[in-house]
Amino acid sequence: SRHPLVICGKHAWNSHQELGLLYEDDRREFVPRGPTEGVQGLTRRLRDRVILIDYVPFSLLLGLIRGARALLFPSLYEGFGLPVLEALQLGTPVMTSNTSSLPEVAGDAALLVDPYDTRAMAEAIQALDNDSELRATLSGRGPKQAALFSPDAYGKRLADLYAKLGVQLGAR
User: What percentage of the chain exceeds 70 in pLDDT?
Assistant: First the structure.
């Protein structure tokens, strides 16, 4: 892809080998003094178009997600998948895992891949990068899927469940 890959978030435990693939080489280079200077004034040269961001405030994160060509979230396990839901709500196309809670959260509004299958991930990324119709379709489906998880929708599902159990919420 000729588009940048922006990776947001803390590095995973023991991820140095995988992250090492993002660097041109294993050399360390001095950064000129100034506001971009690292902790010890050393940095590694990233490959072209790869941007690592350790932390961003929520408002900037929303801007990054909204402006992204797609959100890539090939998680091995998620309890819920809030980043996927946020991207769907903003109408950003999503590629995520076909495991744990993510298929339920994403529904048919995302490309689902096996997070252990690098070929499947590469093919999904290429599809999202090259197919504007696919991006438009997923972008249109995203907010509808995200609406299923709104507080009102959750409250209705919870009230329906309790009603099936014979308990009326709010009744005294």
Answer: 85
